[in-house]
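Encode chain A's predicted structure.
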Amino acid sequence: MNRDLLGRHRSVLPDWLALYYDEPLEITHGEGRHVWDSDGNRYLDFFGGILTTATAHALPEVTKAVGEQAGRIVHSSTLYLNRPMVELAERVARLSGIPDARVFFTTSGTEANDTALLLATTYRRSNTILAMRNSYHGRSFSSVGITGNRGWSPTSLSPLQTLYVHGGVRTRGPYAHLDDHDFVAACVDDLEDILGHTRAPAALIAEPVQGVGGFTSPPDGLYAAFREVLDDHGALWISDEVQTGWGRTGEHFWGWQAHGRGGPPDMLTFAKGIGNGMSVGGVVARAEIMNCLDAHSISTFGGTQITMAAALANLSYLLEHDLQGNARRVGGMLIERLRAAAAHVPHVREVRGRGLMIGIELAEPGTDDADPGAVSAVLEATRDGGLLVGKGGGHDTSVLRIAPPLSLTVSEAEEGAAILEDALRGLQ
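Encoded structure for chain A:
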């Protein structure tokens, strides 16, 4: 059955549409932290639909909200007043930490970042954007143009002038040997040097933890230090929270809060986890920035009633059950368990992460050379063991990405860690 579906997939969908596994699987349903394929195999899900299923599969509170809303009206567009959209915007604005916040809803993180770039370049009257090396911000023409990861950049054409600065990857690059204080200082010097050679930029866009880049992050406070330099040049700070938002890092509700010494960003973008699988994204910005556009606009599907109902129910569940705290507690235990297991595996270069956002970087034993073959082997082995994980990384896709639903239990974390340990040991 899967071979037939795979053949049909390949005959009508693009060649560049990536599929996991030598024999791709079809996921038919899920419950809690588990999913099932079309052959009836059950898997512990440690990737959550690329970090979208943030609470749980088939969460009753969300499915009920979706069903009830679908029974009333599914969609009307932003041309009409929309109570669920207003209610969610009010909650997101309060949670964002941005003063006098306005919220615009989209259908994806790509579209959210695209909107943030439109706002920043219009507000600042500049098409120069600062971005981080190893970054990923989406697949639209503008967001590809600011993505600092060659594996996800199919074109060099762009409507923007993009300049890439150091800092998103702590353990690679020319500053990796420095301690945290000197690392931040060197990255700030690099930023100041770039700004001395270009027109004043519109904004810096940065993921507090780089997602597709392999769950890498700088020392806490880097973006606060950058903010001081940006403020001197009038440039904005956009925090891309598509993967880090909603408490996934455990320590904070938003990733920017690890760099919050200078206050919240001028804009933040979000998506993925808020919808628990429904297509919800958006931008939060100060009113003066959000309102800078001098033409009309709408969003046909951004903020549609059914996705807003799902996001409201999901956000309520996430907050009422302190899933951020669970991510901190269970994620902390999981990362220590994985570090202990990795200490005996020569292929593991680093186990890193925060909360339930954990990366295991693999390399050729005794070197820093990426080993994408080892990542693929572990991906297949964990599937055989009943566990789904992701992969990524800016150095030849050499990182296993672990991001389960935030309701993960201690026993499920132990189960997943044991499967991962067996798969990693199989590399020897």
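The longest helix spans residues 323-342.
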